[in-house]
C-alpha cells in the first residue's frame, strides 16, 4: 500500500512539473513541486503576482491533484521601481476604470507592495473583478481583498431550488454528486467532483444566486 502511494505521488509530481514547464507564461526554473497523498505543494519564486496565480492554476488542472498549497513568493518587487505610493495611485485609477467594479465603492491601500482592497459591493464577481484590476500592476506582491458583500435583495425562499437548477443545467457539473445546502444567504457545497475546474465551477454557480453573501465550498476532488 505504501509503495503505491509513493509511486502515485511521484507521478503526480512529474505531471505537475511538466505542466508548469509546458505553460509559456510561467518561468518554472525557480519552482519546486512536491506531492504527498494527492496534495501538491509549490514553492520557489516568480517574477510577478499573476505568474504566481498562473502556476497555481496549472497545478490544479492536472488530473489526480486533490489540493494545492502555494508557498511561492514574488521576488524582488523593488526591481520594478514602483513605490507604495505609485502603486496606490495606479491601483485606484485601475479600479475607477474597471467596468465591472461599481464606481466609488472600492478603495486600494498599499503597504510593502501589498494591495489591500476595502469597501462594499453587491456581488461576488465584483469583488473578484477588483482583485483582477490591481493584481497586474508592477511591484504588487499580494492582494488582500477585504471588500464586504451587501446584497441588494434578501435571499429568497426558493434560493436552494434556483441553485440546484443551475447546477443541474451546467454541462461541466455532475449534479448527482453535488449537494447545495442553503441557510439564509449562505450556501454550503458538499459532495465530490472530478477536478478542481469542476469544484470552481460549482462555486461560481452558487455565487450567482440572488442574495448570496457567502459560499462555503466543502467539495472534495476525487482522483
UniProtKB/TrEMBL annotation:
Alphabetical list of Gene3D superfamilies matching this protein: 3.30.1340.30
InterPro entries: BON_dom, Lipoprotein_DolP, Transpt-assoc_nodulatn_dom_bac
Keyword match Transferase: yes
Keyword Transferase listed: yes
Pfam families: BON
Record GO terms (molecular function): transaminase activity
Key words of the record: Aminotransferase, Transferase
Record domain BON: where: 8-76, 83-151, 155-223
Protein's name according to its UniProt entry: Ornithine aminotransferase
Organism name: Micromonospora globispora
Amino acid at each position: 500500500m505504501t509503495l503505491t502511494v509513493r509511486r502515485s505521488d511521484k507521478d503526480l509530481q512529474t505531471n505537475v512539473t511538466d505542466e508548469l514547464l509546458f505553460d509559456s507564461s510561467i518561468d518554472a526554473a525557480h519552482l519546486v513541486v512536491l506531492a504527498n497523498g494527492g496534495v501538491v505543494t509549490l514553492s520557489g519564486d516568480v517574477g510577478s503576482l499573476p505568474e504566481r496565480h498562473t502556476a497555481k492554476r496549472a497545478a490544479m488542472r492536472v488530473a489526480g491533484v486533490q489540493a494545492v498549497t502555494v508557498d511561492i513568493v514574488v521576488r524582488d518587487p523593488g526591481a520594478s521601481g514602483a513605490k507604495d505610493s505609485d502603486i496606490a495611485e495606479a491601483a485606484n485609477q485601475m479600479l475607477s476604470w474597471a467596468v465591472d467594479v461599481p464606481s466609488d465603492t472600492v478603495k486600494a491601500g498599499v503597504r510593502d507592495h501589498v494591495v489591500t482592497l476595502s469597501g462594499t459591493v453587491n456581488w461576488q464577481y465584483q469583488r473578484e473583478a477588483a482583485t483582477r484590476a490591481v493584481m497586474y500592476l508592477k511591484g504588487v506582491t499580494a492582494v488582500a481583498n477585504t471588500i464586504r458583500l451587501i446584497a441588494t435583495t434578501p435571499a429568497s425562499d426558493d434560493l436552494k431550488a434556483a441553485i440546484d437548477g443551475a447546477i443541474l443545467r451546467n454541462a461541466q457539473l455532475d449534479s448527482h454528486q453535488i449537494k447545495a445546502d442553503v441557510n439564509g444567504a449562505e450556501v454550503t457545497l458538499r459532495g465530490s467532483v472530478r477536478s478542481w475546474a469542476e469544484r470552481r465551477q460549482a462555486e461560481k454557480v452558487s455565487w450567482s444566486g440572488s442574495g448570496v453573501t457567502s459560499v462555503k465550498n466543502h467539495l472534495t476532488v476525487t482522483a
